[in-house]
Write a structure and sequence with these properties.
7 helices; 71% helix; globular; mainly alpha
């Protein structure tokens, strides 16, 4: 991992704060994008499985989207301070959930694409290649840490 700069951290932090101003809208958009990109993922989410459309005001959907963005934001902080994303209990738990749900590398790419598109829409005129790169690096390192945690899950065979 190359150095995550102070500027990259500042970009992620300021855009994270802006995203939170209307997070209910952005969480709905995030999941809409995921299902547009990969419709088959719908059944991986218990809060979407029994719905024909993405439900508005669904607290589980909002919480899940919030955690994806929050963990990416926290990864940016860790990359700046520690030069890596720390695989803690949260990421180990996420690894076990991802294994149980059958998450693959392709799913991580879908989430990255939806995350970046959501951020682009949320930031409007403030969006830039530099901002995109900062979020992409932070998410990429988070994904690496979760995939590592997934590999560390003992197989049940």
């Amino acid at each position: 991992m190359s150095t995550f700069t102070e500027r990259q951290q500042a970009l992620v932090t300021s855009s994270w704060e802006e995203l939170n101003l209307n997070f209910a809208h952005h969480s709905l958009r995030f999941f809409t994008l995921i299902l547009e990109i990969a419709p088959a993922t719908k059944n991986m989410f218990s809060f979407l499985r029994d719905h024909d459309e993405i439900p508005n005001n669904n607290t589980m959907l909002q919480y899940h989207a919030y955690r994806v963005f929050q963990l990416t934001y926290e990864s940016a902080i860790q990359l700046r301070e520690k030069r890596k994303v720390i695989t803690d209990g949260t990421l180990k738990y996420l690894g076990s959930i991802h294994v149980r749900k059958g998450v693959t590398d392709l799913h991580f790419e879908v989430v990255k694409e939806a995350l970046l598109k959501t951020m682009k829409e949320a930031m409007g005129d403030k969006w830039s290649e530099e901002l995109s790169n900062a979020w992409e690096v932070a998410y990429g390192e988070l994904a690496i840490a979760i995939k590592k945690a997934m590999k560390d899950i003992p197989s049940s065979t």
